[in-house]
Amino acid sequence: MTGPLLDGHLVVDRAGFRLDVRLRVAAGEVVALLGPNGAGKTTALRTLAGLHPLTAGWLRLDGVELDRPATRSFVRPERRPVGVVFQDYLLFPHLTARDNVAFGPRRQGLPRRAARERATDWLGRVGLTAHAGRRPRQLSGGQAQRVALARALAVQPTLLLLDEPLAALDARTRLDTRAHLHRHLTDHAGAAVLVTHDPLDALALADRLVIVEDGRVVQEGDAGTVTTRPRTDYVARLVGLNLHRGRAEGRLVHLADGCAVPTTDRLDGDAFVVFPPTAVTLHPERPAGDAPHTWPATVAGVHRHGDHLRVQLTGPVSTVADVTPVVAAGLRLLPGQQIWATVAADATRAYPVDH
Ligand SMILES: Nc1ncnc2c1ncn2[C@@H]1O[C@H](COP(=O)(O)OP(=O)(O)OP(=O)(O)O)[C@@H](O)[C@H]1O
């Protein structure tokens, strides 16, 4: 069995912050590091590029030790087989697009002419043959992004790193550039690590998501698993689901204060339960039957959300409900109002906390 192309235990200590992330990436695999501001994504990426040394742990790429503080091994950034696309691209302003792309191959020792040929080839592959003689300030945001990608790939990196590669683009350019980037990532034979806070970028571009919060990996898996079985509030919000933790007994997950969520998944023990805001029904009076899956709630806020109104509910079960404007008008929803909420069993999903 062959191991992962990239194998690392990335530990960085800073005042008030510790990054401690185990990361493995196979050849041809694209992994997205996704997480809120300050989670440590950029720090992790910088350790891979060699721009920040590890405090502890190790980093191996294709069997070569790039960083291991315990043995004082450290390979400098320019000697790593790594290509980086930075968020603001960091193109050399005084060089043409072709010379920007040729810079890496030249530094790897390729003769000037061969480096220029390789740059011309890469600019062709990203669709910028006609722009080879332009300087960065004569390029649009999307074109500069493509030059940055060509520059990173022209060194034939074993590891490609992308730091928020689409963040600087407007919505339209972003859509086209995302599709373009996806094609190049699919063709890339090495490992790729992408840092983003945009779940759409992560879902569209990555084979696997690694969610980082407060310096730790809190969840990882393919898009299907992460989006249907979130394990933290951050991931649940990202994918637009209500997430609660409780104790499952058969087809009921018991939450705080005697409230419960019905589910069609039969389960026992500590469990997560998720449901979309559209699965919540609001009632002005307590519905008949007094079932444990009817909760009292207080309307904390109401705002527009697409075609629906999004209702923030507090109480024993803080949750979010989406209702149509007609329903909202019928309920006369106002902040502070007391209300009752139920959720349909066939719209919920429950799964064990331990997995
Ligand atoms: N140069 C620095 N010196 C000291 N602390 C830093 C430095 N850069 C970042 N930090 C801290 O390290 C932690 C991780 O920051 P990092 O930039 O890696 O997070 P991130 O997940 O990339 O966030 P963002 O999405 O906002 O870019 C934060 O607490 C941050 O304040």
From TrEMBL:
The record's keywords, sorted A to Z, are: ATP-binding, Nucleotide-binding, Transport
Put simply, this protein is called: Molybdate transport system ATP-binding protein
The protein's GO terms of the molecular function aspect are: ATP binding; ATP hydrolysis activity
> Does Signal show up as a keyword for this record?
no
What superkingdom heads the lineage?
Answer: Bacteria
Record's Pfam families? ABC_tran, TOBE
What the entry lists under SMART domains is as follows: AAA
Keyword Transport assigned to the entry: answer is: yes
Alphabetical list of SUPFAM superfamilies matching this protein:
MOP-like (SSF50331), P-loop containing nucleoside triphosphate hydrolases (SSF52540)
Q: Which Gene3D superfamilies match?
A: 2.40.50.100, P-loop containing nucleotide triphosphate hydrolases (3.40.50.300)
InterPro entries (alphabetical): AAA+_ATPase, ABC_SmlMolc_Importer, ABC_transporter-like_ATP-bd, ABC_transporter-like_CS, Mo/tungstate-bd_C_term_dom, P-loop_NTPase, Transp-assoc_OB_typ1
Q: Which residues form the ABC transporter domain?
A: 3-239
